[in-house]
Specification:
alpha+beta; two-stranded antiparallel ribbon; 5 helices
């Protein structure tokens, strides 16, 4: 007959072993393997220049039920971003109490600003390439002027 301690030890060993097997069989999948249709982002600077960053305050008096943040905000108007980058604007549904046991839904457009980061990086890279090109042209012009003066 098994003692209570032996029974407890065997009962706890099985879950630990199974849990260990799950971790041992974990799989590392490369990010590039998970994604498809990967392409370099080009001409983002021109598109980005169409966006107009804004500073604003939410109209919390008229939209108390949306529980908007107080104070000065910085960002974009969703409809303006949608005209340039439609994939960065999503609909957000907010459920709020309208009366006793009565709920309503409001739908607002929101900009997924985190997804804007790769666009910003691509635009900065384009801009830096243009700066490097202009610096090289200026250097060539200076070299030409120096040899012209002699």
């Amino acid at each position: 007959m098994k003692s209570f301690n032996t029974y407890i030890k065997q009962s706890f060993l099985l879950p630990v072993f199974v849990l260990g097997a799950i971790v041992v069989n974990a799989q590392d999948i490369a990010d590039k393997d998970v994604k498809k249709n990967i392409a370099v982002m080009e001409d983002q600077l021109q598109k980005l220049m169409q966006l107009q960053p804004k500073k604003y305050e939410y109209n919390i008096n008229n939209f108390k039920y949306l529980k908007l943040q107080k104070g000065k905000q910085y960002g974009f108007i969703a409809e303006e971003v949608e005209a340039v980058f439609p994939e960065l604007v999503k609909q957000k549904s907010i459920s709020y109490m309208y009366g006793k046991n009565v709920y309503r839904n409001a739908t607002v457009k929101v900009v997924d600003e985190e997804r804007l980061i790769p666009v910003l990086v691509a635009a900065i890279q384009e801009q830096q390439n243009e700066i490097e090109k202009l610096k090289a042209e200026l250097l060539d012009m200076k070299k030409g002027m120096v040899s012209f003066n002699y």
